[in-house]
Write a structure and sequence with these properties.
Layout lengths: L5 E3 L9 E3 L13 H8 L4 H5 L8 H24 L1
Antiparallel strand pairs: 1-2
Bound molecules: zinc ion.
The site of zinc ion has 9 residues, from α2.
Length: 83
């Protein structure tokens, strides 16, 4: 799971949950193919679009992903303000 970018993100109600370190998509079924489910449920995840193994990510890669995440976030905030 870690190679697919998942990290343990437990909550009080769900102590065994794993989620994507980048888009925070969660709810993997134990027997599901994580890459397939991740692509289907979160096709614009910055980690998926890098098409790299989690262990091959560089700081530059992460900064690029973070820049894209901030662009999406700012776009959402601006659209809410304009509405
Ligand atoms: Zn993701």
């Amino acid at each position: 799971m870690a190679k697919a970018g998942s990290v343990h993100c437990p909550s009080e109600n769900e102590p065994d949950v794993a989620c994507c370190f980048f888009c925070v998509l969660e709810g993997w079924e134990p027997d599901a193919n994580q890459f397939t489910e991740h692509s289907k449920c979160s096709p614009n995840c910055g980690f998926l679009t890098m098409k790299k193994d989690f262990t091959e990510l560089t700081v530059a890669d992460y900064c690029l992903m973070e820049k894209e995440r901030l662009k999406v976030y700012l776009r959402k905030v601006c659209h809410k303000k304009m509405a």
